[in-house]
Design goal:
With 741 residues, this protein is an alpha/beta fold. 35% of the residues lie in helices and 19% in strands.
């Protein structure tokens, strides 16, 4: 029998900042909003702003405010670096410092107003950039960079100072990078490397060094955006810009906190539309990490389970370490789209192949058995006693002669194989050199991806340094784990973007009739009674049991006769969340006398507890089904979120739930259910019938509509339990909690 215990998975209460701005074009900086076209029903934007950052990264002219050439001053070294950078990119640099006539032999001007040409970029080497902003605005400077620290990362007064700076920048029309940023945007990038590039975004400059160093392995980098505290320009701006650049093959990001969750998702949506992969390390999985990250940049990290789900929802590939960020972004930037999703593992050692295959399969990669014909072909060159179904074990000896290349070509020719992985656990020249060269030559002749794991810790071997790293077609890794992570991301990304349809395209722009009905039921700042919360659900077409609210024992008996025995009786009052714990629920009542007694007991307990009831609910009893919870709440970064999970008493015990950020479609709602550990319960267990998953999905989508339309008035909604009946019979909300804002 199913009661009505109430638990909750949702704990966040602070709404995200709402930004009502429209789509930016590639030729504008701030853009304009079209409220009738570009905003959803809640007034939030539906398109990612794309600032024109060309003149930031390649200015025609620039100024350095506070330039110096005095020995021992920090600004002197920075000035020297900026002069070198300006020469590389062809920018005319003007030092600005009223206390100097020249800096490093260049004429030094007293103010920006004295520059005789339009200025694209101003670099501010001053402790307080705020007074300079007005001067830059008068000179119509397009971009500025502020290195100064002591702002939001320090909290308190620093956060107030940053708010003043951000407000001044917004009034000025300038786009600002920083404060609390560094010189990474002005690094020297190699210009002798070909192929798609990685664009790098970091909120901690040092954390980008491993990715920047990929250039020494022959992997091209095009840009580096060190966003710092993001008083103005933010991670989302650079994702949108990089995703629109033809030379960018992948975006790598180190993210400590997000300025605005919605902006981030809109930028990720643009990258997904353009099929540009975004790989990110996002700090904040633990309380310690979140606290430390927030103190570094002064931004919110967000609830990690929401961040994780939102990234998956929009195709952002989240990795844990900088080594994974390196390897995954490098593979995604350079690899062609896969021809198939099967992974073949080829090695000269049965143990090596089995080990890698075991880890790959556990990570969810598909290792198809090669066809009988293909296995027969491989046994022309590989002894019959060795396994060639997948993984393929050559035994070593064929690698040393012409058979080695034939084996590799034959595997790559199999139509089920999209990726060939060859783990080489250690050098054994000349055999390892021959194997490496065969893999490189085969990779050049195929449109399929070839990956090698070079397991030697030394890394100075000729086979590794010259042969493998010298190839732009072979992806070389140093560990099994990083190879598997990267290959899984590569296949997953292309699977995701091949069927991607932006959820923002279908987001509601006008309120439904249900919203108008529901708003009349909201009570600002109050928790609704169960009866009122169910009326809210009814307004959105979510089924609730047959029930009546009564205020006398006699009325409860009449109601039970109308509802139909057996019945459930529950006390109903505003601000009453956990009725079962207080003894305010009775289930399985089958007679008039039981109903009368239950009414008296419930009202007596409520009186003793000091609870003012609006009545007692006499409810239809639902005796079979799968108990689920569906709810909505507000995340500090992303705004409204929708959760589904196992319900009833299990909600707080197992915490088996999936979350999404609206808007999302039916496919994402079904994916939420597949993510649940208890998903098998919906499919039917021990011979039982499957549950009505379609009805459950419909409830999730209706709650999402409530989140979008009522988000400014509804702080939290929990339907628990939502009983999902047998297939074709629907789903019934047995209990509901609604908290108004």
């Amino acid at each position: 029998m199913l009661g009505s215990t109430h638990g909750t998975l949702t704990t966040h209460s602070r709404p995200a900042r709402v930004v009502a701005c429209g789509e930016h074009t590639a030729t504008t900086v701030h853009g304009t909003a079209d409220p009738g076209k570009d905003l959803d029903v809640s007034g939030r934007p539906l398109h990612a702003p794309v600032p024109d950052l060309d003149r930031f990264f390649r200015p025609a002219s620039m100024v350095v405010v506070g330039a110096s050439d005095s020995e021992g001053r920090p600004s002197t070294g920075i000035t020297r670096r900026l002069i070198d950078w300006s020469e590389r990119v062809g920018a005319r640099l003007h030092p600005v410092n009223p206390g100097r006539s020249t800096v490093f032999g260049l004429p030094c001007l007293p103010s920006v107003a004295d520059v005789s040409e339009p200025v694209d970029l101003a670099v501010l080497l001053v402790a307080d950039p705020l007074p300079v902003i007005e001067e830059l605005a008068e000179a119509k400077v397009k971009f500025a960079v502020a290195f100064a620290s002591g702002f939001a990362e320090t909290g308190g007064e620093g956060a107030i100072a940053q708010a003043r700076l951000a407000a001044a920048v917004e009034r000025s029309g300038i786009r600002l990078l920083g404060p609390n940023t560094n010189l990474n945007a002005f690094e020297e990038f190699r210009d002798d490397l070909d192929g798609p590039a990685i664009a790098l975004i970091t909120q901690s400059g040092h954390q980008g060094r491993p990715v920047f160093a990929l250039q020494e392995l022959g992997i091209r980098l095009s840009h580096w955006a060190p966003t710092g505290n993001e008083a103005d320009l933010e991670t989302a701006d650079f994702i949108s810009y990089f995703a629109s650049r033809p030379e960018v093959g992948a975006i790598a990001a180190y993210v400590e906190g997000l300025k605005d969750g919605r902006d981030f998702l809109l930028a990720a949506d643009r990258a997904a539309r353009n099929k540009v992969p975004v790989v990110a390390v996002k700090v904040g999985r633990t309380e310690t990490g979140a606290r430390t990250a927030a103190s570094h940049t002064g931004k919110l990290t967000g609830a990690d389970e929401v961040v994780d789900a939102a990234m998956r929802q929009f195709g952002v590939i989240r990795v844990n370490g900088l080594d994974e960020l390196q390897d995954t972004s490098a593979l995604l930037a350079r690899a062609r789209p896969p021809r198939a999703d099967g992974v073949a593992v080829y090695s000269i050692s049965g143990g090596t192949g089995a080990h890698f295959a075991d880890l790959a399969a556990a990570a969810g990669l598909r290792l198809p058995d090669l066809s009988a014909e293909k296995q027969t072909e491989l046994h022309q060159w590989i002894p019959d006693y060795l396994g060639v179904s997948n993984p393929i074990d050559s035994g070593g000896h064929p690698v040393g002669d012409r058979r080695g290349r034939k084996i590799i070509d034959a595997i790559l020719a199999d139509p089920s194989v999209g990726v060939l992985v060859c783990p080489i656990t250690g050098p054994f020249p000349p055999m390892s050199d021959k194997l490496a060269q065969d893999l490189v030559d085969a990779a050049e002749a195929t449109d399929k991806q070839v990956c090698v794991v070079w397991g030697s810790p030394v890394g100075t071997e000729d086979a590794y340094r010259r042969i493998l790293l010298g190839s732009s077609r072979v992806a070389t890794f140093r560990t099994f784990a990083n190879c598997i992570t990267a290959v899984r991301a590569y296949l997953g990304h292309h699977r995701f973007v091949s069927g991607y349809r932006s959820p923002f395209d279908d987001a509601p722009r006008t309120a439904s009739p249900s919203a108008r009905k529901a708003r009349d039921l909201l009570r600002p700042g109050q928790q609704l009674s169960e009866h009122a919360a169910k009326q809210l659900l009814r307004a959105y077409g979510i089924r609730v049991p047959r029930e009546q609210l009564v205020t006398s024992a006699a009325a409860s008996v009449r109601a039970a006769g109308l509802v139909g025995y057996p019945v459930v009786m529950k006390a109903s009052a505003a601000q009453l969340a956990h009725k079962t714990e207080l003894g305010l629920v009775r289930v399985g009542l089958t007679s008039a006398s039981q109903v009368r007694d239950a009414y008296r007991e419930l009202t007596d307990i409520a009186r003793h507890e000091g609870i003012t009831l609006d009545g007692v609910l006499v409810c239809q009893m639902i005796e079979r089904g799968v108990e689920m919870v569906v709810g909505m709440t507000h995340d500090s970064l992303f705004g409204p979120t929708v959760t589904v999970g196992l319900g009833g008493v299990l909600v707080e015990v197992l915490r088996d739930a999936a979350v999404r950020v609206p808007p999302f479609g039916e496919d994402q709602a079904r994916e939420m259910l597949r993510e649940l550990r208890g998903h098998a319960l919906l499919e039917g267990v021990r011979g039982g019938p499957p549950a009505d998953v379609d009805a459950l999905v419909e409830v999730v989508l209706r709650v999402q509509r409530m989140a979008l339309e009522l988000g400014d008035g509804l702080a939290e909604l929990d339907i628990n339990p939502l009983v999902v009946l047998d297939r074709g019979q629907g789903a019934v909300a047995l209990d509901a909690l609604a908290v108004c804002r």
